[in-house]
Design a protein that fits this description.
The complex is a heterodimer of chains A (about 325) and B (about 180). With about 325 residues, chain A is of the alpha/beta class. Helices cover about 40% and strands about 15% of the residues of chain A. Chain A is built from twelve helices and nine strands. Chain A has helices at about 1-5, 20-35, 65-75, 95-105, 120-125, 140-155, 175-185, 215, 240-250, 255, 280, 290-315, and strands at about 50-55, 80-85, 110-115, 130-135, 165, 190-195, 210, 225, 265. In chain A, strands 7-6-5-8-9 form a five-stranded parallel beta sheet. In chain A, strands 2-1-3-4 form a four-stranded parallel beta sheet, with helices on both faces. In chain A, strand 5, helix 7 (about 175-185) and strand 6 (about 190-195) form a beta-alpha-beta unit. Chain B has about 180 residues and is an alpha/beta fold. Chain B has one domain (about 10-70, about 85-155): Rossmann fold (3-Layer(aba) Sandwich), CATH 3.40.50. Chain B has helices at about 5-25, 40-55, 110-120, 165, and strands at about 1-5, 30-35, 60-65, 95-105, 125-135, 145-150, 160, 170-175. The termini of chain B are close together. Classes of the chains: A alpha/beta (about 325), B alpha/beta (about 180). Chains A and B meet through helix 2 and helix 12 of A and loops of B.
Chain lengths: ~325, ~180
């Protein structure tokens, strides 16, 4: 009964760090209700009819952007696609001016991805529209954290007591941060695995364990999330060679032999096949990588629905 | 608090509803029953059970969640914030005689939302509305095809339907 009394009142989704367990579970429960919209004959509901969503992406993206676009479309919202490459940002326009100009056209929800951490928060303080973070710097990628958690909960039933390894480039990963907040709040134990050069500086402030050996960890975990090596974000070389990285931290067929039979293999995409994960594993029986993408749609529909609902409730 | 229907009366109403539905149905038409969450869901299950017994044929029963189709999503009335839940209809509704079930018909807004939701799922031959209580006060041109009880109450009263499954006992009250 307590769930019925819960009121969602956030018109922005900036990060999972600030959300309570109850709020995270409420989003996941809501997402469950949206799953069937994508499986029926008419894959559309009229819920956000007349609303305008702007995809304000200052960084490249395929999955997240398309997922947000499709989620908005399935709820009957109109979508404006903004890309930095073909915009006035190249003429020197600031983030706030860009957003205010879009807002002047009467938009309702801004989905923003930006290389600067804190950009979504900044925007949420300065415009009236709802703001949804689609990835900011090395800070957070809340909808990815939610869809990862949703995927695990859907298959395993609950995260309570599960051991989850997040492997690879933790330092440059906003996915890792959002995952850590969501998964630990829902009762899982998170172990970060990777070379010391790819661990963030203030790791002791996070509620996690750290290991520098994948072989030592792989046998004990229920879920393994293989992060992408983000070549584009690495200035200096954090490891001697790609081959060496794969040798120690790649998820290979050989290494999978040590894993639990029902381990879930996850990857936020895009995959560097043969670097952090071998093709046979990425496409293997334990892989839920494509289910993550499917679930992402339901989660993003839920997020768009909830922030809009909170904005509407506040106005009355 | 005034009791409109006791536990026995509710059971009688469901039997009467089933009889009326059967009397109006022609032989070749296949009947399916779909309840609106959450009280309609319970009523639909009971009605489908009675229909199945009387027709000696398993009548399919499903549940419809209308949250995404409500007309107050962008204009919330009061503090209500319903959780979006899933629609569970495990059968094809095309060309069926679809009995849409809710506990109370009052303004007609839920029935409107439900019809829009159903149309997105397929094309039934007909949609008929069956309710336990038909209360005067329609805001839309919608009527019940089958009603257990008809009442007219002042606007400040509300009809509450309780079922064993959700509330511990069967009764319909006015508060």
């Amino acid at each position: 009964m307590s769930k019925k009394e819960f009121i969602w009142n956030r018109k922005h989704l900036i990060g999972l760090r600030e959300l309570s367990r109850e709020e995270i579970e409420y989003i996941l429960d809501t997402a469950q209700g949206f799953e069937q919209v994508s499986t029926r004959s008419i894959k559309k509901a009229p819920t956000l009819r007349g609303k305008v969503v702007v995809n304000l992406f200052f960084e490249d993206s395929t999955r997240t952007r398309n997922s947000f676009t499709l989620a908005a479309n399935r709820l009957s919202a109109d979508v404006i696609e903004f890309t930095q490459k073909s915009s006035s940002v190249n003429k020197g326009e600031t983030l706030l001016d860009t957003a205010r100009n879009l807002e002047a056209m009467g938009i309702d929800i801004v989905v923003i991805r930006h290389s600067a951490g804190g950009a979504p928060k900044f925007l949420s303080r300065n415009i009236n529209a709802c703001v949804v973070n689609a990835g900011d710097g090395f800070c957070e990628h809340p909808t990815q954290g939610l869809l990862d958690t949703f995927t695990i909960r859907k298959i395993k039933g609950s995260l309570e007591g599960l051991k989850i390894a997040i492997v690879g480039d933790i330092a440059h990963s906003r996915v890792a941060r959002s995952d850590i907040y969501a998964m630990t709040k829902l009762g899982a134990e998170v172990i970060l695995v990777g070379p010391p050069t790819l661990m963030p500086a203030k790791i002791n402030q996070l509620p996690v364990q750290v290991s520098y050996s994948l072989d030592a960890v792989i046998g004990q975990v229920n879920v393994i999330n293989m992060l992408r090596i983000q070549f584009e974000r690495m200035g200096t070389n954090p490891f001697p060679s790609i081959k060496e990285y794969s040798h120690y931290f790649g998820l290979t067929v050989e290494r999978m032999k040590k894993a639990k039979k029902d381990i879930l293999v996850m990857h936020p995409g895009p995959i560097n096949r043969g670097v952090e994960i071998e093709s046979e594993v990425a496409d293997g029986a334990n892989s839920v990588i494509l289910q993550q993408v499917t679930n992402g749609l339901a989660v993003r529909m839920a997020v768009l629905f909830l922030v809009n609902q909170a904005a509407m409730t506040k106005e009355t | 608090m005034e009791v409109l229907l006791s536990s026995d009366k509710i059971a009688d109403c469901i039997t009467t509803l089933a009889d009326e539905i059967i009397s109006k149905a022609t032989r070749d038409n296949q009947i399916v029953v779909i309840g609106i969450r959450s009280r309609g869901e319970i009523l639909a299950k009971r009605l489908a059970e009675v229909l199945s017994k009387k027709l000696k044929n398993k009548i399919p029963c499903g549940t419809l969640d209308i949250t995404l189709y409500r007309d107050d999503i962008n204009n919330p009335q009061g503090e209500s914030q319903p959780l979006v839940r899933s629609t569970e209809i495990g059968f094809d509704i095309d060309d069926k005689i679809l009995i849409l079930v809710d506990d109370v018909l009052y303004t007609g807004r839920s029935a409107r939302a439900a019809m829009d939701a159903l149309i997105d799922l397929g094309r039934p031959k007909a949609i008929r509305l069956a309710v336990l209580v038909e209360r005067a006060g329609r805001e839309f041109p919608i009527h019940a095809d089958f009603a257990g009880l008809k009442v007219d109450l002042p606007a400040d009263k509300s009809v509450q339907v309780n079922f064993v499954e959700s509330d511990g006992k069967d009764r319909v009250i006015v508060i």
